[in-house]
C-alpha cells in the first residue's frame, strides 16, 4: 500500500496534486506538508496535514517515520522569478530541501518524485523540438537548481538505488492555484483579468512562445510516472513532457473568441522576458510517451474554455 508524503502541498502543484492522490489512494494514506502558505480548509480537513520546512531534516524525518511513508512527492521550491529576486534563498530551499528528502528516502526506503522544469534548459539549448538529452546550461538560479536536482536524483538512484523519478514541466496553468512567482504566471493572470476587467497588461512580448500545460495534465503525469514500470524508465530524472505551445498573442486570441471585448497590451518586464527567452519554444516528449505512456489531454482551445468556465464560477461564488 502506498503511504505518500507531499511537501509543498500548499503550493502551485501540491494544492491540486494532494487531493488527487487522496482520491486515488485514500485520504488517510496521503500526508500533506506545508510551510509558509496556509492550507485551505479542504486540504487540512481532507487528510493528515503537518507544518514543516523541508530544510528541517529532523522534523521531516519524524513525519516520514510517524506515518510510515514509502513515497515522497517533493514539490517545495522557489519558482523562477521569485528565485531571481533572492537567489541565495532559492538555492537553500531548492537544493538543501531536496538533499534532506533524498537522505530521508535513502534511510527509510522511499521512492521520490521531484519535478524538474523547462527552466533546466538555457539559451544554448535547441529551442524547437528540444530533445530529451541535450545541452543544459541555464542562466537563472531556478534553472541551475533544477539541473543540479536532476543530477542529484540520478546520483541517489545509481549510488543508493533510491527510486527517484521526475518530469520537466512546462509552464503550468491552474484555475485553483494563484500565480506563485513563475515566468509563465501571465498565462494564469490573463484569465482573471479577462473575466474581471476585460483587459490585461502582459509582461512578455506578444510573440514569446513557450511550452505550457493545463494542471489536470500535470497532475496525471506526476501520478502516472510513479506508477510506471521502473524497468522501462531510461531517463527517470527527468522526462520532457508537454501539451501545447503558444505565445501571449495566441492565448489572447483564444480568450477573445470567448470574450470578444477582451483586449491585451504589453509592458515588457526585463526579468520575465530574459528568462522566457532562455527557455525552449517546445520540447520533444517522445521518450515519456514511449517509455511510460504519457499523453496530454488539453490543447489551447480546450484549456481556454475550461479555465474561463471554472474561473467564472469561482469568481461568482
Please give the number of β-strands.
14
How many domains? The number is 2
What proportion strand?
5-15%
Strand order of the largest sheet: 3-2-1-4-5-7
Mind summarizing the main beta sheet? 6 strands, parallel
Distance between the termini: 38 Å
- According to CATH, the homologous superfamily of the largest domain is NAD(P)-binding Rossmann-like Domain
Question: What top-tier CATH class of the largest domain fits best?
Answer: Alpha Beta
Q: Which structural class should the secondary elements be placed in?
A: alpha/beta
Helix content: 40-55%
Helix and strand element order: EHEHEHEHHEEHEEEHEEHEEHEHHH
User: What overall geometry do the principal axes of the alpha carbons give?
Assistant: globular
Computed over alpha carbons, the radius of gyration is 19 Å
CATH topology of the largest domain: Rossmann fold
In the predicted model, the low-confidence regions spanning at least 5 consecutive residues are none
Description:
The chain is globular and about 55 Å long. Strands 3-2-1-4-5-7 form a six-stranded parallel sheet, sandwiched between helices. It is built from twelve helices and 14 strands. It folds into two domains: 4-170 and 233-240, Rossmann fold; 172-212 and 243-316, Rossmann fold (3-Layer(aba) Sandwich), CATH 3.40.50. With 317 residues, it is of the alpha/beta class.
Task: Please give a quick description of this structure.
It contains twelve helices and 14 strands. By secondary structure, it is an alpha/beta fold. Residues 4-241 form the NAD-dependent epimerase/dehydratase domain.
